[in-house]
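Design request, tokens follow.
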């Protein structure tokens, strides 16, 4: 049975429950019994120092790691977006978005997903013809087309330049408002976490060491009162000097 968390105690329906997640590589224990609940529609950012196990946890939750122990239940459909777009170079954009998709109106669904990320006109392009930001938007469309209840995002904008990254953050915020999906966002970037998340978790020494609700408005910016204090608090917990 999964451990109860604040979101369950307030009555929100979970989209993901994970209990006692444990993963070691040889004698190195990376996840030492992680409990995690994500409420329906909630965006949770997962921060932690390099090597703290963020990607490992995401892979376990996505069902991509058969060697972990513990229990994960996703109540609905999950889709994953990685730091690399992972598009198949021999398939056009539309075919990449529709990979494995079946059922009625597949072409219409692909078209709508591409329109939502602003790339409807590139549906016949090859992945090699896209910029890094465009390819990552196709990867987001490929996740969206599955109408996920939960997006698992592993540093999805980590390989992009600063400006494209900001644009992608705005896009994700808009898509979330329109679709209401929940998300687990693995990121190195404290500002990105504060801009996008309802709750921030900090992974340290195999455990969730900090759980921080982000009580800022949905259209928050770094200039908002409260943003700076949360930023300093998180950087302090990450051991990064701010003065
Ligand atoms: N397949 C593997 N074999 C051996 N060790 C691994 C493997 N995958 C991850 N690790 C180790 O597990 C630890 C956590 O790695 P992970 O990639 O999850 O960290 P992370 O927090 O996502 O790091 P970063 O922020 O740098 O991406 C690291 O010490 C890493 O070397």
């Amino acid at each position: 049975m999964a451990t109860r968390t604040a979101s369950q105690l307030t009555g929100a329906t979970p989209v993901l429950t994970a209990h006692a997640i444990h993963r070691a590589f040889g004698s190195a224990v990376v996840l030492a019994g992680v409990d995690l609940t994500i409420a329906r529609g909630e965006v949770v950012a997962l921060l932690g120092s390099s090597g703290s196990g963020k990607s490992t946890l995401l892979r376990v939750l996505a069902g991509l790691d058969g060697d972990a122990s513990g229990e994960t239940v996703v109540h609905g459909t999950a889709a994953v977006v990685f730091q690399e777009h992972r598009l198949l170079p021999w398939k056009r954009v539309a075919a990449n978005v529709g990979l494995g998709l079946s059922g009625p109106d597949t072409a219409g669904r692909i078209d709508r997903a591409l329109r939502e990320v602003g790339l409807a006109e590139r549906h016949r392009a090859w992945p090699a013809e896209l910029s890094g930001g465009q390819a990552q938007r196709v990867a987001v469309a490929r996740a969206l087309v599955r109408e996920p209840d939960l997006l698992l995002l592993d540093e999805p904008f980590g390989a992009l330049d600063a400006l494209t990254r900001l644009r992608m953050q705005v896009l994700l915020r808009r898509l979330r408002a329109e679709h209401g999906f929940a998300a687990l966002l693995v990121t190195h970037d404290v500002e990105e976490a504060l801009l996008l998340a309802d709750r921030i978790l900090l992974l340290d020494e195999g455990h969730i060491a900090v759980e921080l609700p982000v009580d800022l408005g949905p259209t928050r910016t770094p200039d908002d009162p409260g943003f700076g204090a949360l930023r300093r608090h998180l950087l302090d917990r990450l051991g990064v000097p701010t003065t």
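Comment from the thread starter after seeing the answer: thanks! The CA atoms of residues 141 and 188 lie 23 Å apart.
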